[in-house]
## 1
Amino acid sequence: MSFKTLDQIGDARGKVVLVRVDLNLPMQDGAVTDDTRVQAAKPTILELADKGAKVLLLAHFGRPKGERVSTQSLSMVVGAVEQVLGREVMFVSEIAGPVVSQVVGILPEGGIACLENTRFWKGEEKNDPELVKAIAENADIYVNDAFSAAHRAHATTEGLAHVLPSYAGRSMQAELEALGKALGEPERPVAAVVGGAKVSSKLDVLKHLVGKVDHLIIGGGMANTFLAARGVDVGKSLCEHDLAPTAEAILDAADASGCTVHLPYDVVVSKEFAANPPSLRTCNVHEVAADEMILDVGPAATEALADVLKVCKTLVWNGPMGAFETQPFDTATVALARTAAALTREGSLVSVAGGGDTVAALSHAGVAGDFSYVSTAGGAFLEWMEGRVLPGVAALSS
């Protein structure tokens, strides 16, 4: 898809630029505990400020449902934004109207201001044209740098792109370019790793991927549902037995499209879900006892999956292979992640990963920085994997 970037913005000196960012930051005891999303937006904000633009940040924070909630004011995070940017950031308690107009008047070229939580206004989530118009009246340019909110057709994620000259910020640009390489026009063969607890949460992802990739590697609890659909007794493992027909349909669709589905043939089992339990053992999937549960992919299958990655050129990863938060059920996830990272470092694999559990799993394996791209977007990344059109992205290409 084609979209304009900051490279096409021209002379920004003195221009008022609305920059949609993601400042929905985790907090504890009134302090920001993770500034990753601010770090992602930093290059765009500073590039525009250094070009002499007056930068107005737009973002949501929590779910105030159209009401002013003091604990969800963006004033809570401005200090963290200032610390990351190394610049002073003015906080503005409105997003439109005369107050913002006055701020624009006094803000120097290169100045940065953070407007209030956009979700304090009911028109934000309704994508109200009147609110869009009111916000746009105080600006010259719109930049969207919040891919994580691009699956929402809200006033500040989609509406503004239709009424102002619109561009993708550096973080959005990097995300879209990485996703394009992964499933848009990928170099083949393409592998997808899809893990997690339940098939039901990723049905649309699986249905979409079997028509897009050459190898589909299924891990986590959802692999148990597919094993059960194939007649394997998975004991007391997490399993959605009622989805067996759906799993069969996905396997049939994969066969029809030439996609090879990889399920574990040896597994790590235990009678209890606890760290290093005494009942821990590795066995063939057909040897799982009635009182045991599958908690990770076994070593033989993990090695075979690593061999699959070695013949692929592109990898998309979403979800862990086992219950990685508890040792030793992180073994398969860590091993496969390190294989993907090594292949990426040597230049033979383009690797794109995303989703909350995935980021945590790759960080746990110590390889998040070695993948070609790791998306911190949750819902937006998942919807992209489902093949859906993301309103905030589509608006930039219109």
Note: The chain has two domains: 6-170, 186-386.
## 2
Amino acid sequence: MRRTTRVAAAGLGVTSLMALSACGGGGENGGGDANADAWILTGGGWPAIQEDFDRWNEANEDAQIDTEAIENDSYKGQIRTAVGSGEAPTLIMSWTGGALLEYAEEERIVDLSEHTGDLESRVFDSVWQNGQIDGSTYAVPLNDVQPVVMYYNQAVFDEAGVEIPETWEDVEAAIDTFNENDVAPFSLAGGSVWPALMWLQYLTDRHGGEEVFQAVVEGEEGAWDNESILFALETMQDLGENGGYIDTYNSVTADQNEDAQLLADGQAAMLLQGSWVYSTIHQDFPEFAESGDFGFTSFPTLEDGAGDPSNIVGNPANFWSVSADASEEEQQIAFDYISENLYNEETVTAMLEAGSLPPLADIEDQIAETEDADFLDFSSNLVGEANHFQLSWDQAVAPEVAQPLTDNLSQILRGDMTPQEFVDAMNSL
């Protein structure tokens, strides 16, 4: 990753961390209490992370790590304020992106390059690079990877006589055939908006490469006004207007898995969604999941596109950084936890049993023994072979930018905003 001198949360007019103040973080940072501390999230796979901390504390009586669980929507604001005031927990969790760049720029986190043990050699490079700035490691992954993949209903393809598309030219041909057969080519939960970000990311990356959005993260002037972003927005509007997405896409939501149901019911041939939808299909639509027609593949390549076709998007993982404001004793506890304990055998086993995928290159045999071996192996190869794993844009930008991004994309989906108006609006923030 490149680094600029002005990276304040994607360079989009956000107040500097140094200007923030708060009443405090989770522990006695800098004081006499040698315990380190960490904030974790509630729900999802976080109970497994808490169990990992519990095991660490049982085995390390003199190197305790206190934890506090915070609801996801509240976390971003609270951690940003705590980091800015110098009262952050010892272990700082982030999604990397603009937040990590800002933490490093303001010297609120420490360089971990000499404190990761053999972790770097185990983690896939496409994931590891999300925690690096100028070749130095400022954050390390702590949980599972969630790439965005293309799901499909093989029965719908067979009935229409269509092959699974590998290129964008294949996609365009498939759209025509599916429309002739009165089947929606793609399910999309446009009513929720965020699933459309996956389309925007993949199309932008396939057209112009990872550097396009990296310029946004690094705060380059006018970075949104890029031909690849315009191409992606124009393509998305074309899909909506000319039968690429299901006709009702603007009223379909992901809250109750309506987009997945359209795929399972055969009303749509394909669905671009996160890897978590695999378990959703098995839980909510078991008949389809077990029918032999439930398939998955990578996003198609774009002929003449400048992006690496191995690139993927999604959630590379959550990451740990270590607070520069913690005491030396607290920092050492965090260093030891990172180098000696992350992705230990017990934690990896628990993750795989839950259907989660650690971003590790040395667990092929363990994956092969799971119930979801085919999908986990596919996902692992996807991540392992990726040249670049791009973080979801709504996580990569600052909190105050995420909502305008979603609002403007919603207008793109409804046809109430042109692609050029979208980029102008984003550049103006």
Note: The domain at 36-145+316-361 is CATH 3.40.190.10 (D-Maltodextrin-Binding Protein; domain 2).
## 3
Amino acid sequence: MLELLFLLLPVAAAYGWFMGRNSVRSEERKEQQQFSKKYAAGLNLLLSDEPDKAVDLFVELLDVDSDTLETHWTLGTLFRRRGEVERAIKIHQNLINRSNITEYDRLNAMFELGKDYLSAGIYDRAEQMFSRLQNHKLFRTASRHYLLELFQATHDWDKAIKVALRLNRDDHIEAVVGQLYCELSLTEQSVSKQIKYCKKALKYDKRCVRASILLGQIYAGRDQLREAIHSYEYVLEQDKQFIRDVLQPLKACYMSLQDEAGYIEFLNRCVAANAGTSAVIELSEYLFENQGGDAAERFIRSAMEQHATMRGFHQLMDFHIRAADVGNARESLRMLQKMVAEHIKQRPSYACRQCGFSGQTLYWQCPSCKTWGSTKPIKGLDGE
């Protein structure tokens, strides 16, 4: 009897294998039929000109494995760039929840999900994702850059500064920190704190023109005119292209102190440093009032021979109009000057050195490329 049982064991095993195989084949056939139905449904959606629904269906059909993972990354990025952030979020959340992907791929899915949230304006969730990823060496720097972008978008300048200071201390980051301290200064009611943050901005970026201008405004508002003058004049050392933006407030300080000579001395320094047409025009007006039209005309003509600008030409015509006799010549000059003035009015005064965005307003952060400190006065014929 026992011998018979031992003889039947291989038969039983074979039967079990056969039945199990049939069962697996049956399941595979069911899955294949289900896959075929969904695939056919996807094709019908494509043919019915409903590609978005078709894509969603095909994504469901893709199992997450080493062969299809790249497809999921590509689709997630594509959806985010197209503004279909909900779909991108769905794909990346699905990847995070999978048990059959590597830890690196899971972290990468979290990183992409953080970018999805940031793009959608869901800042609290984006902050959670990037804050967690800071603890992982491979994602640390990139996550901090996105956190910096996030805190700037939410105007949380304190957090933005802390994150920026944890990034590599290259020149660009130092300049960004300077701008962030200027933003923080503008949020303060306390004058002492405003001054403190502007000085911190100059500590991290000694060429931060914005901090000097803000300090000049603060000191002038408190009638600390000599301190204001010092801050405004420091712009000549930082970046002479911005002299046009401090001349009028600087002049007001000097005039309040009845120190016209000090202002003229500074204008001469600006002209010697080739700091732009605005200083030339200011100095030519002084010469006109004190030495006459011929001296003013010779001065501005000499300056125009070195660096011709439309604004300089407009001023030169003004001197000619003042000297011209009443009549047709004077009216013709007025008409020509009006045309030049209209041209100047229509031309941008500032342009971003990073992306080329231009306009009449000085933005310390470019509205187009979001770069700090890249917008400067335009040079050349239409500028300074």
Note: Residues 2-47 form the longest helix (46 residues).
